Amino acid sequence: MNPALFLIAFVLGIVVGYQVVLLVTRRGKPKYFASAEYWVFLPGEVMPTQDAVMTRMVAQNPYARRGTSPVGAAEGLLFSDVRLHIALVLRNKNASAFRPDLFDANSEASAEVLELLNDAKSFVRLRYVSEDPLGDRRHLQFLPHAADAVAELGDGRLIYDKSAERFYLREELQELLRERFDVTGAEAHTRVVWNREGDGGWIETRGLVKVGHRELRAGPLDHDQRVVVTNVMEEAMRHLWEVRTFPSDLEVGAFDDRFKLFFGQARDRFVPVQVARVKTA
Fold it and tell me: Domain of 40?
């Protein structure tokens, strides 16, 4: 082969190889995505004004303690954050969003929830989305208080935490905010659900996406493994809530024992998990 042609072919080979490696690397690394979203169902079709919501949340917050509001200036700045989206969704234009049969089965809609869904004419969607790693957790404090303020001003009695797939009656959300001045912890935003299939099922988390993590999925499992693995997953979720980088494995304690979780390759919104008891000498 002509030396010049050989050199050109060699260089092209390096370039193509580098591009393939780069492409594989990019595909293999999950893109960061954090999302927290609440729907506040209203009996009317008018959304409270932003000024009224802001006043209720900051200056007149009913959950203040010793003169200090749980929503301060730092959280208030989120009103002007481009990652915050607030919109009114009308039933007559988006009827499917009000259908209980289209919600996740684990949302556990009670008879009262179904009645409130049936009566609602609209809902206010409060959504905070970031494709860049979050520098703080202000959105976790902001959104529940914003949902409560919208419900109060719009006479709404039902709130849906879409990220955690959980309904709140307004009095239930009020109780949560009264009990927790700081509402950024995992307990207020996450949960573990059991999906039954035949004689067993699988366990999944809900809410980790609020801090930029994929949700966890363990299974298939026998029914008699449900309690132990649920507890293990809850402990793992609390740990992951506090870290920015998703680990390759994790060891947690449950029922006076130690368990190790091995995380597989992310698939869509879930990371598959294998749970093993740690043998002690």
Answer: 34-187
The answer to whether 229 and 244 are in contact (CB under 8 A) is no
Q: What is the DSSP string of 225-264?
A: GHHHHHHHHHHHHHHHHT-SSPPSEEEEEETTEEEEEEE-
Q: Where does a domain end: 187, 205, 226? A: 187
User: Is the residue at 26 inside a domain?
Assistant: no
d(C-alpha 62, C-alpha 129), whole Å: 27
pLDDT digits (tens, 9 = 90+) for 151-182: 999 999 999 999 999 999 999 999 999 999 99
Q: Based on the domain organization, do 39 and 162 belong to the same domain?
A: yes
Record the pTM. 0.87
Q: What is the mean pLDDT of each run of 10 residues along the chain (281 residues)?
A: 50 45 46 96 98 97 96 96 98 92 82 95 98 96 98 98 96 98 98 92 97 97 95 97 95 94 93 91 55
* Domain-located, residue 14: no
Give the CB-side neighbour count of residue 244, counting CA atoms within 13 A: 6
Kindly state the tokens that stand for 156.
């709404």
Residues contacting 186, CB < 8 A, separation 6+: 207, 237, 238, 241, 242
**Number of structural domains found in the chain:** 2
Same domain, residue pair 40 and 179: yes
In the numeric block, which tokens belong to residue 153? Answer: 């001003």
**Backbone dihedral angles phi then psi of residue 89, each to the nearest 5 degrees:** -110, 120
Cα torsion for 96, 102, 107, 108, to the nearest 10°? 100
DSSP calls for 101-135: GGS-GGG---HHHHHHHHH-SEEEEEEEEESS--S
What are the beta bridge partners of residue 122? 42, 90
Taking the CA atoms of residue 101, residue 108, residue 191 and residue 186 in that order, the dihedral angle to the nearest 10 degrees is 100
Nearest to 145 by CA among 108, 107, 109, 183: 183
